[in-house]
Design brief:
It is built from 20 helices and 2 strands. The protein has about 450 residues and is mainly α.
């Protein structure tokens, strides 16, 4: 029954994506014709933000570390509040007035083509990691629950996400995402009351659970430290900003992104609690990231297990779709039309974006089959994105004196410091600060030093 339901659901997603894309134009593909309502914008953001890391990964952290795992998804919600109230409306107005369709368009206009090219390179490097993480989760989920070989699970997820995205881009994805959000949130919320032990969570947990398991701020590797790792990424993520570009006005940005933030903040507790419940019924797991799949397989009624599996499938495919959106539109707009063929027509850009989506999907499947941990793989993406882009984008919006050299300095300093710190400390960091925090500090310092050396305003040619 489980596999039948999954295949029917996957076919429905592909069909809905094709139907929504029948009259898609280039503007529809890149920015949904700038006509997303607050509800559609919120839906497509939620679907993008709740994926493998927010479900399977967060449940695994809840299994291992307890309540402090809330910060994994909660940090995304807090970052989204800043996006809704500060960054989003401002960058939407600029994008609408200058017809920007990617974050690279903004960076080129503000700092010059070199900055856009560097952003595109960072985006491909980091985004393939998060795409692979979704497919790793899908492979492990289908293997645990339905007996599908892990490699084939990765392939199935990659094919479904690529097919329905490549048909129509952001416009069709936003409509498909509205369906996915309902399935996702409904399925996992239903799982909670059925999985809760009759004796109560507190008295049912294994005796070896540490006291810090009940700490809301820090336990094991989880806690408020995730705010530095994840918060900035959800403010300046190229994929999320491009979805913001699709809003019909600044008011839709504020309301839609805030709705997304509220859902993320509330939803953050759901996978954590499911992971903690899995520790009650499965106290010894070799891999904590199997906590949620094992719970669905063994601790729920068959019909609900199938529905919850479909919800997870929906979450992971929708986020894979969002990553394909980032990658393929950046290739078409920032690299192909921006550097290789500036005179490219809209139809040529559409052909490139669809081809890039297929290539990215295939690369993601390959990396997923080879790679391991979901959270570790996604952490790579968030580290690169935060350290490389956050300070540059914020400076572009709010520091008039910042120019090309300043942006390049912040990006290179952030990425180099984060990478070196990861390599030198095996990802642990120094004096209690994670590598990405050191990268953000280095990026900020590079901006301050560069601004101090250039007293006069500088533009793209500076």
């Amino acid at each position: 029954m489980t596999l039948t339901l999954l295949f029917v659901y996957a076919a429905a997603l592909i069909a809905l994506g094709w139907w929504s894309s029948r009259t898609a134009t280039a503007s529809d593909f890149f920015v949904a014709g700038r006509r997303l309502s607050p509800a559609l914008l919120a839906g497509t953001l939620i679907a993008a933000n709740i994926g493998a890391g927010s479900t399977v990964g967060a449940a695994g952290l809840g299994y291992r570390d307890g309540l402090a795992a809330w910060w994994w998804v909660g940090s995304a919600g807090l970052g989204s509040i800043v996006l809704a109230l500060v960054v989003g409306p401002r960058i939407w107005r600029i994008a609408a007035s200058e017809d920007h369709r990617t974050l690279g368009d903004f960076l080129k206009a503000r700092f010059g083509p070199e900055v856009r090219a560097l952003m595109a390179a960072l985006l491909w490097f980091g985004s393939l990691a998060i795409l692979a993480a979704q497919l790793i989760a899908l492979g492990g989920l289908l293997q645990t629950v339905a007996g599908v070989p892990r490699a084939w699970g990765c392939v199935i997820g990659g094919v479904v996400a690529t097919l329905y995205f490549a048909t129509g881009g952001l416009l069709s994805s936003a409509k498909v995402n509205a369906v996915q959000v309902c399935v996702l949130v409904g399925g996992l919320l239903l799982a909670l009351p059925f999985a809760w032990p009759a004796a109560g969570l507190a008295v049912s947990l294994p005796a070896d659970v540490p006291v810090s398991y009940w700490s809301a701020l820090a336990s094991g590797g989880s806690g408020i430290v995730y705010l530095a790792l994840l918060g900035p990424s959800f403010i300046v993520s190229p994929g999320l900003l491009q979805k913001v570009y699709g809003a019909r006005d600044a008011r839709a940005v504020r309301i839609g992104v805030l709705l997304n933030a509220v859902v993320l903040l509330a939803f953050a507790a759901v996978p954590v609690l499911l992971g903690m419940l899995a520790r009650v019924s499965h106290p010894v797991l070799d891999n904590h990231e199997l906590a949620l799949p094992m719970l669905l397989r063994d601790d729920l009624p068959p019909w609900l297990g199938a529905l919850a599996l479909t919800a997870l499938f929906s979450a992971e495919v929708s986020t894979a779709d969002a990553v394909l959106f980032m990658l393929s539109t950046s290739v078409a707009r920032d690299l192909y039309a921006g550097h290789l063929r500036p005179a490219a027509t809209q139809d040529e850009q559409l052909r490139v974006v669809r081809g890039a989506a297929v290539i990215a999907g295939a690369l993601g499947v390959g990396i997923a089959i080879w790679a391991g941990s979901i959270v570790r793989t996604m952490g790579l993406f968030y580290s690169v994105l935060s350290a490389g882009l956050f300070v540059a984008v914020i400076a572009g919006l709010f520091v008039p004196r910042a120019g090309r050299r300043h942006a390049l300095a912040t990006m290179l300093a952030g990425v180099a410091t984060t990478t070196a710190m990861h390599a030198a400390t095996a990802g642990v960091g120094l004096v209690g600060l994670a590598p990405v925090v050191w990268g953000l500090l280095a990026s900020t310092a590079a901006l301050v030093v560069a601004l101090g050396r250039a007293r006069s305003p500088s533009g793209p040619s500076s």
